[in-house]
Amino acid sequence: MQRILIDTDPGVDDAIAILLALLSPELHIEAITTVCGNVPVTQGTENLLRILAVLDLEEFPCIAQGEARPLVKNLVTAAHVHGEDGLGNISQLRNTDGSPLYPLANTSISSTSGVDLILETVTRYPDELTLVALGPLTNIATAIRKDASKMQRLQTIILMGGAFEEYGNVTTTAEFNIFVDPHAAQEVFQSNVPIDIAPLDATHQVVLTGERLHAETDKRPNRISQFLKDATQSCMEFYRRYVGFWGFHIHDALPIGMLTHPDYFQSVAADVQVETEGTLTNGMTVADLRPERRHPNPNAQVCIKVAAEAFLDHFFKRIARR
Ligand code: RIB
Ligand code: CA
Fold it and tell me: Which ligand 1 atom lies nearest to the CA of residue 175?
């Protein structure tokens, strides 16, 4: 069983990743911290409580709210993709009696900051905690600034972010999580903590079509299925209009799969740097992935190949477990 801490900016695909992690017996979620990104961090924390209420959990991970703004840049959010509330506007949905269809979980938010909860959790589980970063890396970089030697006791950082031989999804060259806080990303990549990356090169191989989602959820009409259908409507509509198909990429689910089913994923070692000054290339992840050109001192394992169908089959078997 792997101990993990999830740092997240929920976000529809973050929600899917968190549910998948909660339904993965290979993993134990020690804590969840929120960070600014898809939505302001206060909204992200509310969304996390809504996500945790979808399952009938007997106990909740420790939760703390993290940084409200990137290290240097102003915050850029993604409400146009994830909906105004960041979860496809499910916070507006009501039962016939007027009560919220998706209420908040009955658990408290720690008074500890997200950064301090990360440091406390590493201290509690030295050399056996994996940090799963699903949003901008602001909390992680701030924790490294606060206590770099303690963060060295992380087993691994596994993150969704970056684009290498794939175009970006914010600008031509930059993926959202890195674009929002490139300074934080660069500091994390230079931290000497072992890093596994699920970039767009990998996440774009896993396409969840609306047809597949509805076929699978119609097979098992339960609370999670309803949540998946309700929460994904806005981003699937965005994809239909601007990406060209009805569906979306479950980006953040890949790091969870890389932990529980590593054989579905193939990675290469690379020396990753992040552009923090560029105008056209701000937030670009830069690495030479050519086999003959790889850097002698790699700082990350970059996932370049996914057994997409096998992973999607696994995903639906897990999600429909309840
Ligand atoms: O580029 C995709 C990433 O940005 C995902 O983590 C998504 O949730 C957004 O945060
Ligand atoms: Ca995210």
Answer: 1
Question: What residue's CA is closest to ligand 1, atom 10?
Answer: 135
Q: What residues are in contact with ligand 1 under a 6 Å CB criterion?
A: 9, 11, 13-14, 37-38, 134-135, 160, 169, 175-177, 251-252
Is residue 119 over pLDDT 90?
yes
For residues 115 and 195, what is the distance between their CA atoms, to the nearest angstrom? 18
Residue 194: count other Cβ atoms within 10 Å of its Cβ.
15
Q: What is the mean pLDDT of residues 45-69?
A: 97
Q: How far is the CA of 285 from the centre of ligand 1 (A)?
A: 15
pLDDT tens-digit series, residues 164-207: 999 999 999 999 999 999 999 999 999 999 999 999 999 999 99
Mark residue 314 as left, alpha or beta (left: phi above 0; alpha: psi -120 to 50; beta: remaining).
alpha
Place of tokens 């060295």: 152
Q: How far is the CA of 164 from the centre of ligand 1 (A)?
A: 16
Cβ 51 vs Cβ 15: under 8 Å: yes
Query: Is residue 255 helix, strand or coil?
Result: helix
Active site amino acids: 251
Alpha-carbon distance of 278 to 285, in angstroms, equals 12
- Cα of 78 to ligand 1 centre, how many Å? 9
- Max Cα distance, the chain (Å): 64
pTM: 0.97
Counting every residue written for the chain, the total comes to 322
Place of tokens 């994996």: 130
Ligand 1 atom, smallest distance to 160 CA:
6
Structure confidence at residue 322 (pLDDT) = 53
